[in-house]
Amino acid sequence: MKVLVTGGTGLVGKALQTVIKNQGRQEEEWYFAGSKDADLTNLAATQALFAREKPTHVIHLAAMVGGLFHNMNNNLDFLRNNLLINDNVLQTAHEQGCVKVVSCLSTCIFPDKTTYPISETMVHNGPPHPSNYGYSYAKRLIDVQNHAYHDKYGRMYTSVIPCNIFGPHDNYKPEVSHVIPGMINRMHRLITENPEVPEIEKVFTIFGSGMPLRQFIYSLDLAELMIWVLRSYDSVEPIILSVDECQEVTIFEVASAIAEAFHFKGKLVCDTTKADGQYKKTASNAKLRSHLPDYLFTDFEIAIKASVQWYKDNYNEARK
Ligand code: NAP
Ligand code: GFB
């Protein structure tokens, strides 16, 4: 099996690299491509990458990715870039005879008006939240494309639907980041700058009300589950890869866990002038549990502590 991972140099790609290295399976060859290997919005570059690597299998992670605020301001770019990347990768994978492609959707693409918990059958049941419609429609089309390649050519092209992901090698750039790397970057800066100010007097700002609810999966857990999907899940239908519904936390609880990991002694306050985005997107992992009933997710607080420690230890090369 020769596996090409597109988007192999980001948060999820690096987690896959770590897990694959630890598993050390001789019968598999893996290549982790970043945008330096090929700008996948360009068809010729995509074809050259596939011709060079000759993959039999693809994990397709490459995408324009960002948090709430980045999506809100760039829906057109999220739509166009991801449509281009996805069409180039799926068509080229087909032309190169790749037997399986596992692509990535997200629990944020489900209908804004929905019943809970959300399940895989609900992807196309109504418009997504207005904050990220560009990204959402591009991602939803992957599911349509997968069915079209299966209907016409019998291709096993499928997709996973992760909840919010965090971990080492995240994207900490404030203007584009998701909530956890965004908070880690801002809290680290608050603690390390102005050392003359007693930490107990410092105030950390949580954007929004702190009330929205999220499920968070540690990137290393997601990587293990995606590798299982590549090797053992043979259905075109998407599968949600998320922690349990009961593991949902509020944004305020996230900030508290990050403050705990930093031993932050100051105050946490909410800036309600900033958007909350989706209030909740509670997803059911019942389908995953039907396959892997005993899978153990890493404890959230432990994963947050490990992510904060990674950021401190790798501050210089972190994307910030
Ligand atoms: P990330 O850290 O931003 O990494 C994105 C990857 O895509 C990088 O390897 C990047 O390459 C590559 N890439 C971006 N634009 C490209 C282009 N035009 N051509 C070639 N490569 C390009 O993102 P991530 O969080 O790992 O996301 C991986 C997948 O998970 C994405 O499909 C995303 O939609 C999905 N997802 C993420 C989350 C989350 O919370 N992070 C949640 C649900 C689903 P460079 O490193 O060279 O820029
Ligand atoms: O991870 P996030 O940016 O995206 O989380 P979503 C946004 C929530 O965290 C909002 C609050 O309620 C924000 O008000 N928040 C608090 C912060 N402090 C911060 C901060 O420093 N940075 C950020 N970014 N938020 C995204 C989708 O939704 O989910 C994307 O827009 C993607 O398309 C991603 O799929 C997984 O979870 O709201």
Structure characterization notes:
The structure is a single chain. By secondary structure, the protein is of the alpha/beta class. It has a domain at 2-166 and 215-246 and 282-299: 3-Layer(aba) Sandwich (Rossmann fold). It is 41% helix and 15% strand. The chain has ten helices and twelve strands. The chain has helices spanning 11-23, 43-53, 68-73, 75-95, 133-153, 179-192, 219-232, 251-261, 286-291, 300-313; strands at 2-6, 29-32, 57-60, 100-104, 156-162, 164-166, 203-207, 213-214, 216-218, 239-241, 249-250, 267-271. The chain has a six-stranded parallel beta sheet with strand order 2-1-3-4-5-10, with helices on both faces. Helix 5 links the parallel strand 4 and strand 5 (156-162). Helix 2 packs across helix 4 (75-95), helix 4 packs parallel to helix 5 (133-153) and helix 6 crosses helix 8. It is globular and about 65 Å long. The two termini are 35 Å apart. The relative contact order is 0.15. The chain binds NADP nicotinamide-adenine-dinucleotide phosphate and guanosine-5'-diphosphate-beta-L-fucopyranose (GFB). Guanosine-5'-diphosphate-beta-L-fucopyranose binds at residues 67-69, 71, 106, 108, 131-132, 135, 164, 177-179, 182-183, 186, 206-208, 212, 214, 251, 274-278.
Map the helices and strands.
Layout lengths: L1 E5 L4 H13 L5 E4 L10 H11 L3 E4 L7 H6 L1 H21 L4 E5 L28 H21 L2 E7 L1 E3 L12 H14 L10 E5 L5 E2 L1 E3 H14 L6 E3 L7 E2 H11 L5 E5 L14 H6 L8 H14 L7
Helix pairs in contact: 1-7, 2-4, 4-5, 6-8, 8-10
Bound molecules: NADP nicotinamide-adenine-dinucleotide phosphate and guanosine-5'-diphosphate-beta-L-fucopyranose.
Guanosine-5'-diphosphate-beta-L-fucopyranose binds next to α3, α6 and β7.
